[in-house]
Fold this sequence. Notes:
Layout: E1 2-4, H1 9-14, H2 16-25, E2 32-35, H3 40-44, E3 51-54, H4 58-70, E4 76-79, H5 84-92, E5 97-101, E6 112-114, H6 118-122, H7 126-133, H8 151-160, E7 168-172, H9 185-198, E8 202-205, H10 212-222, E9 228-230, H11 237-245, E10 249-253, H12 256-263, E11 268-272, H13 277-280, E12 287-291, H14 305-312, H15 316-327
Parallel strand pairs: 1-2, 1-4, 2-3, 4-5, 5-6, 7-8, 7-10, 8-9, 10-11, 11-12
Helix pairs in contact: 2-7, 4-5, 8-11, 9-10, 9-15
Amino acid sequence: MLVVGLNWLGDAVMSMPALQLFRAQHPDWRITMLVKPPLAGLWDMHEAVDDIQILEPGNRGVYTTARRLTGKRFDRAYILPNSFRSALVPCLGGIRERIGVRGPCRGLAINRPVHCSADQVTRHQQFEMCSVLGVDEPADGLPLPELRVPAAELMKAEALLPSGPAPRLGCIPGAARGSSKQWPEAHFVELIRRVLKESDARIVLLGTSIDEALCARLVRAVESTDRVVNLAGATRLKTFAAVLSLLTAVVANDSGGMHLAAATGTPVFALYGMTDPAKTGPLGPHTQVLQKSEKRCRDIPRVSPEAEAALASIRPEEVWECVKGFVCS
């Protein structure tokens, strides 16, 4: 079977519980994930997946990927995204059974449509994936995402992190969605200063290459570079996961990095403005959402003064009260 994976890191992590259930129910099936290049490393760390195929970029990539799939003899495709392109590739690839939610222009590409119940649509996003994959929720609930970080990546991560017994607090100050999901920069500065003043913890700043300038400004603002390590843009996804797994705790915006941190099992303090954690909250054994806004919705604009104000209302001293039990020896 082929699973067309979701395109965003956080969404991909939230689809793991349903895929783990599917694997448990079909232990003899060979499962191949079709994903964009940036997410190949994520699924390479997931034991439910046997093989990974890359979805090549652009319109030309649709046809070259479809031709490659033609020779694989897949029995069926489960299409997790709702886009037309995600359904077109397995259709052109000649996969006879194509299972997914109906959507705009997907009528011919999806020949086994599934319907998400009202209950599943209003619950956490992980339950929508159960509908597409056709798995039932166990009586004891869905499993947490499972990642297997390779030992080689853990060695790389240790070499990047501060050595010694002091706690290591990760901070992920960016968010791909933009300012509507970013805790104010000044709040991060104040939190980091508080941690450095009242504990012997080291700070590890994390993010993608897009966050390099933001994290560099934080380093300059706190004026304590000997205890602050900036790894923004310095790690690929597997090493990023390894670093997260070795931290004492993580403070993060609602972002892909937050979901990845939770999946590694590291304690996560998630900062939410107006997005709804009941729908897209982190899935991990040790997570806590900090949110003040009572107005919540699934999708908000990239720039939203109302959402920014909701995030700003979470004060640095409140976050400190949450993390100090982890970083104070």
